[in-house]
From TrEMBL:
Transmembrane segments: none annotated. Residues 22-195 form the Phosphoribulokinase/uridine kinase domain. It comes from Streptococcus fermentans. InterPro entries: P-loop_NTPase, PRK/URK. This is Phosphoribulokinase.
Amino acid sequence: MKKKDLIEQLVSEIDSGRIRTLGIYGHGASGKSTFAQELYQSLDSTTVNLLETDPYITSERHLVVPKETPNQKVTACLAVAHELASLQRDILALQAGMDVLTIEEPWKASEVLSGAKPILIVEGMSVGFLPKEFFDKTICFYTDEETELKRRLARDTTVRNRDTKFILASQQMRRMQYLQYYKETESRADILIDQSDDKFQIKTKII
C-alpha cells in the first residue's frame, strides 16, 4: 500500500465516523509531521483539528537526566520530557467540544482549535506516551539513522534555526535514547510505517 492509498483509506474511515480521534507519532524526523499535514489537507478543514504536540515538550529538560546515562541531556525520547497531563487535558477538552488555544512556538504562532469540529488529529512524539484509549486509531513512523539525520539537517537548520554542528553532535545521543526509551512505543501502534531510505512501507496489518 502506498502513502496515497493509506491517506485515502483514513479519509474514508474518518468520513464514515469510524475514526474521530487519530494519533500519529514516531521519533524525530521520522516523517510523521509531513504525513499528518498531507492527511489534514485531504480533509475538510471545517470539520477537523490538527493538534501538534511539540509545544508540550518541556524546555526544562536540563533539570533531569536519564538514570542509566547521567552524563546525557534528556531528549524527547523520554516520557519525562513531555507535559503529558496538559496534553491530555487539551485532548479531552477538544473531544468534549471546548475550544483550545495552542501553545506558541518560535516557528509557529498560537491559534484557537475549535471544539465544534468533530475530528481530531493529534501529531507528535508525545502521542506515543499517551493511553491508547484516547484514540480510535494510532499510526507510528520510524526511519533509519541516515535518513533521520538527513531530514533533521534539512528541517532544523531552515525551519527551527538550529546549528548544523549541534545537530551532528547530538545525533548519536538522540538515536541511542530512541532505541533505549522510545522504540518500544512502536509495538502499541495500530499501523507501523517504515520510512527508511525515503521509502514508505507498512509493517503491520491494516486494522
